[in-house]
């Protein structure tokens, strides 16, 4: 299938799909004789997985670290969220950001009235 069809099937845009390819999250696609990208159902499944992991709070950089192992998540009967170390680091970063934002909110709110 062509890039527009693959992107639509995964709930994204052709521009996002090209971005994921440029960042190494998607392997280079097969090409037609005319040079157009051709995607297989497995490519669409990988793209859906990438979108799901990004929606769960991982970043493109997080996924770049394990891009060569994303196929394992696709092949698992009950895929885990992602590689443990990456998830642990992301959770720690989110906890730190929540703490920072809580302090900021408390500072802006000032002393609580009784």
UniProtKB/TrEMBL annotation:
Specify the superkingdom: Bacteria
According to the entry, every stretch annotated as the HTH merR-type domain falls at: 1-69
Sorted keywords for this record are: DNA-binding
Question: Recorded GO terms, molecular function?
Answer: DNA binding; DNA-binding transcription factor activity
For this protein, the record's Pfam families field holds: MerR_1
**Which parts pass through the membrane?**
none
Q: What is this protein called?
A: DNA-binding transcriptional regulator, MerR family
Q: Which organism is it from?
A: Actinacidiphila cocklensis
